Amino acid sequence: MTAALAIRGATKRFGAVLALDGVDVTVDRGEVLALLGDNGAGKSTLIKCISGAHRLDAGTIEMDGRPVTIHSPTDARALGIETVYQDLALFDNLGATDNFFAGRELATPSWLPRSLRLLRRKRMTESTREVLARFEVSLPRIDSTVGLMSGGQRQAVAVSRAAAFASNVVILDEPTAALGLRESQGVLALIRRLRDDGKAVIVISHALDHVMEVADRAVVLRRGRKVGELPASREAHTQIVSLIVGGGA
Amino acid sequence: MDAQGHEMTLPASQSLSADGADARDRLLGAALLGLRLGPALILLLLIVVVSLTTPVFTTTRNIGNILSQTTLIALLALGQLLVIITRGIDLSVGSTVALSSVVGAIVYMHTSSSLLVILAMLGTGIAVGSANGLVYVFGRVPHPFIVTLASLSIVRGLALWAANGTLIPGMPHAVQVVGGGTIGWFPYSAFVVLGLALAVLLLTTALVWGRWLYAVGGNPDAARRTGVPVKRVLVSVYVISGFMAAVAGLANAGLTDAGSPTFGDLAELDSIAAVIIGGAAFAGGRGNVGNALVGAFTIGIIRNALNLHAVNAFYQLMVIGAVILLAVEADVIRGRVEGRLRVARAMGA
């Protein structure tokens, strides 16, 4: 079986610092991969190379067995890779629909320059409703501005936006960091639905409890290297912690 | 499949079922709506009070006067609105009014073509706006305040230099009609304002560009990451603002049958005041065409009413200042109500 996303020999250098040193990571469809590691381990750098914010110095990225190049966020999105950033990248002054379609509005007619096309509001609202319903996200009102929503609802909008447009991979950076217990559970449920929907999901989180609840597999990075890869389970918890801190190894 | 029974939905659904929270939600929502309609309600109140105390106010002649006198602020406010939505400011519009009128007058001295005169005037505004936008975006200047403060000075200087410091009489008939002509009591310039307001309304609400505009104003970083052409949007708002200033210059020149380097003095501040009275915020991402016009007419009607009562012009300045403070305070209150609504919704029950 070919992985939805396979990164091999990922290497990235910032001046004298080797942020990534030959890291191999694969994710399958319908799988949640936890990317773990202490601050500065290279998780964020790896994610940024996949989502197009950085370029790899060396190494390859394959999707469904085919090599791809990702040099910009636009490249990544075109390949069906969506990222939910820690700051969510939401527009507080806009509603859920406009947030969903920001930068990729459905508009007509196609012979006009993109900026001057007429918005197809109904279609955008309908498909936003549809996605929110599919992921069982309920909002007070779909046209209410995102700035007036609670932290959990905002996170849900950001995650379902990614889910709606990611045909292949969804990356979540610290999805529960700013949330209370109840809202965290909601987001974790949402991540399971992403997986059940057939996406390859990568989750970065410091909240090990949360990650273990949803992840199928965990990859641990330390100082830019992959130091462990194991099934995510309660039993593996202590082993993962020691891999992260690198104490007894 | 959902083997482990993740039937959990997000907390939002629970908050909806709670009656108390629902009522509170509705109350706060109503308060928010009231604050949003605030600018229009204040204008309405103003109109009612002035009509009751000043019989001349509602005569068609006076209404025509108000429309004509508010043309300048209204046109500048349409451009300024777009700039302020993107968290920017355009201080150069008053100077652009002057320069485009002077350029028009000079072109008219050398040709008799009204088309060339009009094109030269509009071109002047577009050129100033493009310069503002390009220098701001590609010169990586931290804030447009600085760029447009510089062009406020440069453009006014250019106008004074080109006109030799004095008024240049003479405008083609077409320009005179646009600026000063009327159909009965209704000024042509009001049609220009209406037409351009509808164009901006279309741009901001129905076209992709409008979504980009509010996205850039709401969260520039996210806009960049989601593929919105942020730089192009930023340049375009300054171009449109320059264009609006040129149209205002054209109307002013037509009304007075002259180009003058002193036209539009301090008009940039009026336009900013109009947009702020109309509920837009310097923080960006908010504001609409209707409210910007409401802001412009609030200023126009206050001036008109005080004129009709022969109140000293010094008081006009004070009254308009007070209205600006009132509008900003309403915005602060609105921010608080929004915060409470957010908390009420987050709490759920």
Fold and architecture overview:
The complex is a heterodimer of chains A (about 250) and B (about 350). Helices cover about 35% and strands about 25% of the residues of chain A. Chain A is an alpha/beta fold and about 250 residues long. The longest helix of chain A has 16 residues, at about 180-195. Chain A is globular, with a radius of gyration of 19 Å. With about 350 residues, chain B is an all-alpha fold. In chain B, the strands form 2 sheets. Chain B has a two-stranded antiparallel sheet. Chain B starts with 11 loop residues before the first helix and ends with a helix. Residues about 1-20 of chain B have low confidence and may be disordered. Classes of the chains: A alpha/beta (about 250), B mainly alpha (about 350). Chains A and B meet through helix 2, strand 8, helix 5 and helix 6 of A and helix 1, helix 9, helix 10 and helix 14 of B.
Give a quick set of tags describing it.
heterodimer; A: alpha/beta; four-stranded antiparallel sheet; 33% helix; B: 349 residues; mainly alpha; two-stranded antiparallel ribbon; globular
Q: What does the secondary structure layout of this molecule look like, with pairings?
A:
The complex is a heterodimer of chains A (249) and B (349).
Chain A: E1 5-14, E2 17-27, E3 31-36, H1 43-51, E4 58-63, E5 66-68, H2 73-78, E6 81-84, H3 96-101, E7 107-108, E8 118-119, H4 121-134, H5 151-165, E9 169-173, H6 181-196, E10 200-204, H7 208-214, E11 217-222, E12 225-231, H8 237-245
Chain B: H1 12-17, H2 19-53, H3 60-85, H4 93-110, H5 114-138, H6 144-162, E1 168-169, H7 173-180, E2 182-183, E3 186-187, H8 188-205, H9 208-218, H10 220-225, H11 230-256, E4 258-259, H12 267-277, H13 289-308, H14 313-347
Antiparallel strand pairs in B: 1-4, 2-3
Helix pairs in contact in B: 2-13, 2-14, 3-8, 3-11, 3-12, 3-13, 4-5, 4-6, 4-11, 5-6, 5-11, 7-11, 8-9, 12-13, 12-14, 13-14
